[in-house]
């Protein structure tokens, strides 16, 4: 090979390597949301440190300004830039107030502790205020905390208040001017992320066909399907934005269709490869070649940003060519691959990109979203009558009060580490089990971070540029990983503290060990408060979440009948995403019961089975939404009968969860969809047949909920 050819091959290899790495980044972080968050926090902190350092502020002022910049930049993104600016501007009020109180009361320990508890109560209580509660309450707590950390005094108060203003200005500049949220650009990113997730699913199917159904490959395929679904939800969230692109309803339908096609392909691949008579090597080769073609089309489309031609293979559009030369054992698999290709092509058309190939049928936009009343949770005793923010405010105050007592017993100078550990375990948790899990993860992350932080601090002691660089690396890593692993975030924060103490010249290994002790004491205090003070059990939270999902599914089935039989304009796409949101609440509530540390193995198995069946229900709801057409089966009595029976069974399951006396048994039917559409003169079209099939599967999944929920089944079909 000539030198020019060798150079070209090397360049192509590096290009492919970079493209592969970018694909993995986009797939692991759809929309680059975590990257934007971490970069925004890092740049805000660096800018605040540089500005305050050049202005001649002391180290305490620099730390305080950097901390408020970090807290502000990591807060929730507001819907408009004007509201984002208003939130950042208002932050000065609680931040400056908390800092002033801490500095003035520093010499009066008892009064200071009582005021700190009052700040904690208000900071959690105002989370009930939409958009403003959390971004205004959390900085108040953090400024009181950091004032104790840096030892703020009344004499230094004017300088520290100015440092807060500088930090807020830096965070606002980055968040509003340099890295503002751009819906159109973010939509393109999350769409590319969905494409990357879709390509990963196809790649896993290829591995399954090549190397066989090993448990590890089946598990990897399942995980990638789940991540593709998460990415699809991110696309849906962007399409709900006021700045969403034109034809958002059509985009929603296309994404949902591509997601369902890929899920069906994964199911067909698992079924075919685990069957007694798997596809032959020749059939597998055909399937792998077609998968490789689709993966390459998706990859090139992503790299070009949707520009250029999109050439559709003949076997995607021609129904006869789809199955030409394929044995019966592989027909379902090969057909599913073609369906993925068709869904990808339609998605391209939805974005008004040039598509070259045989003509394909297109679809109309979906109707406008319908307003629905939220499902109210049941009221049980005092806990049920209190809003979650009120209950958590009381729990956090009691937990932090216990943490102050325990922290001061361990160290009168470093007691605040126990308080922050007790405070943060209540953030994002709704039950005692979730609080326990979060406290455990914080202790584990701190423990591992202490060992690493000690080693790193000892190795880089005295090297100011290296210490500063590692500090910024830890800040970036902590916020980049916070959405993935709370323990990883705690690990990097602990390492950062070791470096920070080294920078201040106060580092000792015993200081980090004391942090572990304080963290463990604070986490234990928070968990104790969650278990004793107005406790909300994980089991009751799961029951309420399941009840809400059953109500949502019943409403979805009723809307399906209204759309297909009566011709009412109902947005089933949006309704199916509401079902997904409720399913996510179920999975979050069930997480403590599914954890390996859960002592009750039988309950863990039952809960896993329940979540699995509910996931099937949500999948079939998405299938109905993707295929149901307005007035597809006008005035079909069988559809109305089947839909009414499925909705009634869901209400009967809901009655079981309410512990109502003598709930009615679930009504069975051996073949609920057999007669749907029988009166149609030309039979059912392909899309309507798919919708009916998904309704049949949903009916069976609802009946399968009887065992995990303790409901009775009727003795015979009626």
UniProtKB/TrEMBL annotation:
**Listed InterPro entries:** Memb_transporter_dom
What is the membrane topology noted in the UniProt record heading this document? Multi-pass membrane protein
Transmembrane segments in this chain: where?
Answer: 37-64, 85-104, 110-126, 133-153, 159-179, 416-436, 443-460, 466-484, 491-514, 520-537
Kindly provide the name given to this protein in its UniProt entry: FUSC family protein
Q: Would the keyword Transmembrane turn up in this protein's UniProt record?
A: yes
Domain Integral membrane bound transporter, by residue range, is 402-528
The superkingdom listed in its UniProt entry is: Bacteria
For this UniProt record, the keywords arranged alphabetically read as follows: Cell membrane, Membrane, Transmembrane, Transmembrane helix
**N-terminal signal peptide:** none
């Amino acid at each position: 090979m000539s030198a020019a050819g060798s150079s070209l091959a090397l360049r192509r290899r590096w290009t492919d390597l970079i493209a592969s790495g970018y694909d993995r980044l986009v797939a692991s972080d759809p929309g680059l949301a975590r990257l934007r968050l971490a970069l925004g926090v890092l740049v805000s902190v660096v800018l605040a440190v540089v500005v305050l350092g050049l202005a001649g502020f002391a180290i305490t002022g620099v730390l305080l300004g950097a901390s408020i910049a970090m807290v502000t930049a990591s807060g929730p993104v507001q819907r408009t830039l004007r509201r984002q600016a208003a939130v950042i501007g208002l932050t000065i009020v609680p931040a400056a107030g908390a800092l002033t109180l801490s500095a003035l009361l520093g010499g009066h320990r008892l009064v200071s502790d009582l005021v700190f508890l009052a700040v904690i109560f208000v900071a959690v209580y105002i989370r009930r205020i939409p958009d403003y509660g959390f971004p205004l309450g959390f900085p108040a707590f953090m400024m009181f905390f950091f004032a104790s950390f840096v030892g703020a005094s009344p004499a230094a108060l004017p300088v520290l208040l100015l440092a807060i203003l500088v930090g807020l200005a830096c965070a606002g500049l980055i968040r509003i001017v340099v890295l503002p949220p751009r819906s159109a650009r973010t939509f393109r990113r999350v769409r590319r992320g969905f494409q990357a997730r879709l390509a990963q699913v196809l790649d896993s199917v290829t591995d399954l066909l090549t190397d066989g159904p090993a448990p590890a490959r089946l598990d990897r395929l399942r995980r990638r399907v789940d991540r593709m679904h998460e990415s699809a939800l991110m696309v849906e969230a962007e399409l709900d934005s006021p700045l969403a692109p034109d034809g958002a309803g059509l985009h929603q339908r296309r994404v949902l269709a591509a997601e369902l096609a890929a899920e069906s392909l994964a199911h067909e691949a698992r079924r075919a490869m685990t069957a007694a008579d798997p596809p032959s090597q020749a059939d597998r080769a055909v399937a792998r070649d077609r998968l490789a073609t689709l993966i390459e089309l998706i990859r090139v489309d992503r790299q070009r940003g949707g520009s250029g031609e999109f050439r559709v293979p003949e076997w995607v559009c021609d129904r006869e060519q789809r199955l030409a030369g394929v044995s019966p054992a592989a027909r379902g698999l090969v057909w599913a691959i073609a369906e993925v290709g068709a869904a990808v092509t339609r998605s391209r058309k939805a974005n008004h990109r040039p598509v070259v190939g045989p003509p394909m049928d297109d679809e109309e936009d979906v109707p406008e979203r319908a307003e629905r009343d939220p499902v109210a949770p049941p009221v049980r005793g005092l806990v049920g009558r209190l809003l979650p923010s009120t209950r958590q405010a009381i729990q956090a105050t009691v937990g932090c009060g216990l943490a102050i007592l325990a922290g001061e017993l361990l160290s009168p100078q470093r007691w605040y580490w126990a308080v922050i550990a007790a405070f943060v375990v209540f953030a994002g948790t709704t039950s005692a089990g979730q609080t326990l899990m979060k406290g455990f993860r914080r202790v584990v992350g701190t423990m591992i971070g202490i060992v690493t932080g000690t080693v790193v601090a000892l190795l880089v002691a005295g090297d100011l540029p290296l210490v500063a660089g590692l500090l910024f690396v830890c800040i970036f890593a902590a916020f980049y990983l916070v959405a993935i692993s709370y323990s990883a975030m705690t690990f990097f924060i602990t390492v950062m503290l070791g470096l920070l103490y080294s920078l201040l010249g106060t580092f000792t290994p015993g200081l980090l060990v004391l942090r572990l002790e304080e963290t463990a004491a604070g986490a234990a205090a928070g968990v104790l408060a969650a278990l004793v003070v107005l406790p909300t059990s994980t089991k009751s939270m799961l029951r309420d979440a399941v009840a809400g999902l059953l109500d949502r599914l019943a409403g979805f089935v009723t809307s399906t009948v209204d759309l297909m039989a009566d011709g009412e304009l109902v947005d089933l796409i949006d309704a199916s995403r509401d079902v997904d949101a409720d399913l996510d609440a179920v999975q979050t509530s069930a997480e403590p019961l599914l954890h390996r540390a859960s002592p009750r193995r039988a309950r863990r198995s039952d809960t896993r089975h329940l979540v699995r069946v509910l996931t099937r229900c949500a999948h079939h709801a998405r299938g109905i939404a993707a295929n149901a057409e307005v007035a597809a089966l006008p005035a079909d009595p069988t559809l109305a009968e089947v839909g009414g029976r499925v909705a009634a069974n869901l209400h009967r399951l809901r009655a079981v969860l309410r512990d109502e006396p003598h709930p009615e048994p679930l009504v069975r039917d051996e073949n609920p969809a057999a007669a749907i559409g029988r009166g149609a003169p030309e039979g059912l079209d392909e899309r309507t047949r798919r919708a009916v099939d998904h309704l049949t599967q949903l009916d069976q999944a609802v009946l399968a909920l009887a065992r995990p929920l303790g409901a009775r089944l009727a003795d015979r079909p009626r």
